[in-house]
Amino acid sequence: MSTDAEPVEPSGGNGTSRVRPHHLAIGLGIAFAVGTAVSGILPLILDWHSDSAIQREVFENVPGPLQLAFYTIIPVLLVWGAFAFAARMRNWERGSPAPRRTTRKNASRRLRDFRAGVYMRTLLRDSAAGLMHSMIYFGFLVLLGVTTVLEIDHQLPEDLKFLHGRTYQAYAMVGDAAGLVFLGGIGWAILRRYVQRPYRIRIKSKPEHAVILGVFGAIGLTGFGAEAFRIALRTAEGDSMDFERWSFVGYPLSTLVDGWSESTLTSVHQWWWIGHVVAFVAFLVILPITMLRHMFTSPLNMYLRDKERPKGAMKPMPNLMETELESFGASVVEDFTWKQLLDTDACTMCGRCTSVCPAHATGKSLDPREIVLKAGEVMAATGDPVVSPPIGTDAEITVSANSLFERITSEELWACTSCKACDEICPVDIEILDKILDMRRYLALMESDFPTELGNAYRGMENQGNPWGMNQGERGDWAKDLDFVDIVDPGTPLEAEYL
Ligand code: SF4
Ligand code: SF4
């Protein structure tokens, strides 16, 4: 995608130094980076080691310069990622206010919605896709946890270290099981996207998906490779590695290279380790700039689901006799609320909304997923700084201004039946219909751009107060021949029940 749009100043950009959400993201990234760097330096100073024979030496067979590179690159990437993520958040801050505060009254509902997100409950409504996604997500989280636990143990004084003996063996088994589940999920995802190819996936498969699956697959495979060669190397050095049988994937793999020389195993292990770190570095690079960002944005979006407006209610219109507003509805990015803009970065592109949309099913130009993504494209291309679009970069697409109608047509919007099926099925609680109705409100009120069939209905509502254009004085005519229905004179005080 290219843009020649002028950068748009985030709303409220009045030069004050108020702390904004994107500052928190930067602060968090810097804190993690400092923590990572310190965790690399401390063990060098303290030199705390465990004497247990049943344990794993951190950075075993990894030369000092490689360790230094690791503890330099990872913190730098964490800071870079935080700034990249903050740039996206600045885009959300361009939106108008949306009351989504966490209060004592809604805190438990918010936590429940958040839990539904992180436990994948909404995804499991489609059991096959949900299970596949859960295998990747939980497998990855456990692997991340396993690495973190090893790092924590690495920092502790000798008598506080806990990762040895039976605890280590259980830990190793959990790590291998998680790796297996993770790789199983990746294999399933590849099968689903490139072999089974269900419609909603097929029409939105981009090179970005292949990159993400490739990076995840590389993390899993190189992890097992590094583990197998680490065990094989120590076996070749004469250590008894029977306790590593609990690494029920890495250990059998290590026996396949029995008889290899120590020097060969040393260098092959180092290459697998480098491959593993490079795969993790690639993960950190693509995390903020691809749809993988939904690992953070989707649960956040679900946490913010609870809103004051009842389900299905449109945003209230201001009193037209009193308001000083000159425009109604949404025509530019800034007309959406910050929550509506966050939505566009939280979309997982799963296409469930597409699959249930009656307009899409009957061949109309509307695809609810595209409404979300196109709004996100305009937001991304007109941000300051410009950020990557929600998915992929298409050189054919040019966004020259922050108008939503750069990418979204009135034909798409008026094809919507307002059935809300898309909102109901969305696993991450994206409010799609709200966006459509806001843009339609703009088209109808500001541009008089609506289907001709609606002209009579609008005129009827304007002149007679009903969409059929019926005379108000004839409103009760339907009952004039019915003895058991009294038509009450609207001028007299009401003493009757009415329908
Ligand atoms: S509300 Fe509109 S976009 Fe959503 S499913 Fe119904 S017709 Fe499709
Ligand atoms: S809007 Fe929701 S249902 Fe539609 S593609 Fe995005 S995440 Fe999936």
Structure description:
- There is one protein chain.
- With 499 residues, this protein is mainly alpha-helical.
- It has two domains: 21-303, no CATH class; 333-457, Fumarate Reductase Iron-sulfur Protein, Chain B, domain 2.
- The chain is built from 18 helices and two strands.
- The chain has a two-stranded parallel ribbon.
- The longest helix is centred in the middle third of the chain and has 32 residues, at 165-196.
- The two termini are 56 Å apart.
- The structure holds iron/sulfur cluster (2 copies).
Taking all Cα atoms into account, the compactness measure Rg is 29 Å
Strand neighbour order, sheet with most strands:
1-2
* Number of helices in the DSSP assignment: 18
| pLDDT < 50 stretches | 1-15
Mean pLDDT: 90
Query: How far apart are the termini?
Result: 56 Å
Count of beta strands? 2
Q: Give a short account of the largest sheet.
A: 2 strands, parallel
Bound molecules: iron/sulfur cluster
Q: What does the overall shape look like? A: elongated
Give the helices and strands as they follow along the chain.
EHHHHHHHHHHHHHHEHHHH
Number of domains: 2
> Level of helix content?
40-55%
- Oligomeric state: single chain
The chain-level structural class is: mainly alpha
List the helices and strands and how they pair.
Elements: E1 2-3, H1 21-46, H2 64-92, H3 107-118, H4 127-155, H5 165-196, H6 199-202, H7 207-236, H8 250-255, H9 262-289, H10 294-303, H11 338-346, H12 352-356, H13 358-361, H14 368-381, E2 398-399, H15 410-414, H16 421-425, H17 432-446, H18 453-463
The structure holds iron/sulfur cluster (SF4) (2 copies).
